Description:
The complex is a heterodimer.
Chain A: H1 22-33, H2 37-40, H3 45-64, H4 77-87, H5 91-99, H6 109-136
Helix pairs in contact in A: 1-6, 3-6, 4-6
Chain B: H1 7-26, H2 30-59
Amino acid sequence: MANQTTAKPTTKAAEPAQPVSTMSVIAPALGWLIPGAGHIIQKLWIRGVLLFVSIGALFVLGLMMQGHIYRANAGDILEMLGFVGDLGSGAFYITALAAGWGSAVVSNAVADYGKMFMIVAGLLNFISVADAYHIAIGKKLGKKQ
Amino acid sequence: MTIQLTHFSAAFVFALFASIVFGITHRETTRDMVRYGLYCFAMFMGGALVAGWAMWLVRR
């Protein structure tokens, strides 16, 4: 009598492709430009407002603490990373750049904190954008809780 | 318009807003969001306090 072996499949079953919908494109794009808007457009009002207030407050406080805003500059790798972080804030960053804010040289510890506040605000918005995308494709629960 | 925050108030503000975003984006239900946000806030503030006291001890 032959032994029956229960061989496990060596490869994972392919995950079904996520459907590309209009919302899955618009929500992340809008969420990047205006923090929280990617949630608001999906009628997640409270989450969207909380994200906007949190990310916006961090960015504005960073500016008020005389933090430095990084510009697109290929000269220094650390400045490029700072630029990527700042860029995540979307309209906040574009407005600050257009108005010429945040161009002062960091001169004290508080200004250094301000610089970090703005970078972290941008990075948090990248997480927010990913969350809006996951809700749009149905990977994360939206209103049904 | 400028603002001068103390180290503690800067840490508090940072922890507050970062925890809100973490709570919303890392959990699915409202209850879990609140719990995770509070957990993150406690970790941020607790970490800052522990690091502060550690530096005080090192300096002595």
